[in-house]
Specification:
The protein is mainly α. The protein has two domains: 35-69; 79-319, Orthogonal Bundle (MetI-like fold), CATH 1.10.3720. It is 67% helix and 1% strand. The chain has 15 helices and two strands. A two-stranded antiparallel ribbon has the order 1-2. A hairpin with a 2-residue loop joins β1 (71-72) and β2 (75-76). The chain is globular and about 75 Å long. It starts with a helix and ends in a 7-residue tail after the last helix.
Length: 326
């Protein structure tokens, strides 16, 4: 009897589950709220500024530059690309020298990023005198570039304190040396100048990345007995790699614009010219009547065609390195 009742109960439940329900659930339509007219006007007004800026200063400028590179006398011509190729092969117009100096400064900028991380780490660890070193590293970045370049020129000039120290006090040389007016030293002095001024920006970003590192991870590593160098290699470096990779990619975008303040320090003389100063001169910087805009446009397009594949390949390789999420 009990079994029969259980079977009937099961059949009733199956029939109830399979029968279509006559009750239809209420469908609530979510009405999209319209954005207030004032908000729409505000958003459009704020977007108009960057859009106009992008269209006027980027699109129109680059389209005009592209047209200049392929025109001569109002007609289509590849003459300017021939000039760039000839200048690259023969070194005419100091183009080869400018390209070489730019490449040297670019490699120097990339190689300095690990050193920036190292110094940022010791400042983060608050080594003895870290406050003084922080001021020393950041001070040049907040002073006017023109003022600091002028002071530096006077300091290393033939009558400056450096020559007085070398000639009179230390007696390492017999006569004063023009460090910025001698082909043997000019590039090295400018490189030292850029090294001195290049600490501020990268150290600021890396310092922010180090401030986000969980203290618990470093304390756990110390409890496991790792030293300072192993901590930097196995803990700090992976944790700040996203910031490091960003700095490397940004550095790659400056492949053909690396260099120092050549115009302020040497005026491009004594073997110190770079591509940035070369473009400035060919655009009529020193003599507006001798400007060669077509030549400069073709050179820019030529260098872009070389640089873009290099940057994209390097970016792809950098992104293959796994990042640590925390």
């Amino acid at each position: 009897m009990t079994d029969n009742l259980m079977e009937e109960s099961v059949e009733v439940q199956i029939q109830t589950a399979t029968e279509p329900s006559n009750q239809t659930p209420e469908v609530t339509k979510n009405k999209k709220k319209k954005m207030p007219k004032q908000d729409v006007i505000f958003i459009l007004a704020m977007l108009a500024i960057p859009v106009v800026h992008f269209g006027f200063f980027w699109i129109s400028t680059n389209v005009g530059s592209l047209a200049l590179a392929f025109t001569m006398g109002g007609k289509f011509s590849m003459h300017w690309f021939d000039m760039v190729w000839f200048a690259l092969k023969t070194g005419q117009d100091n183009f080869g020298e400018a390209l070489l100096n730019t490449g040297i400064f670019f490699v120097k900028d990339l190689c300095m990023i690990p050193f920036h991380l190292l110094v940022s780490y010791f400042l983060y660890r608050q080594v003895k005198g870290y406050s003084v070193f922080r001021i020393i590293f950041y001070m040049p970045a907040i002073i006017s570039p023109v003022a600091i370049a002028s002071m530096f020129s006077l300091f290393v000039g033939p009558t400056g304190p450096l020559n007085h120290l070398l000639v009179n006090e230390l007696q390492w040389v017999s006569k004063s040396v023009g460090f910025l007016s001698d082909r043997r030293y000019a590039n090295m002095v400018i490189m030292f100048y850029t090294l001195w001024l290049g600490w501020g920006g990268n150290m600021l970003l890396l310092g922010g990345a180090l401030a986000r590192v969980p203290v618990e991870i470093l304390e756990s590593g110390r409890l496991d007995g790792i030293g300072t160098w192993r901590e930097i290699i196995y803990l700090i470096f992976p944790l700040v790699w996203p910031t490091m990779s960003t700095l490397i990619i940004l550095g790659l975008t400056g492949l053909f614009s690396a260099g120092g303040p050549v115009m302020l320090l040497t005026g491009g003389n004594y073997g110190t010219t770079n591509l940035t100063y070369w473009i400035f001169c060919k655009s009529g910087g020193n003599d507006p009547s001798a400007a060669q805009y077509n030549y400069v446009s073709a050179a820019g397009l030529f260098l872009t065609a070389i640089g873009v594949p290099i940057i994209l390949v390097c970016r792809k390789l950098i992104e293959m390195i796994p990042t640590v999420e925390y």
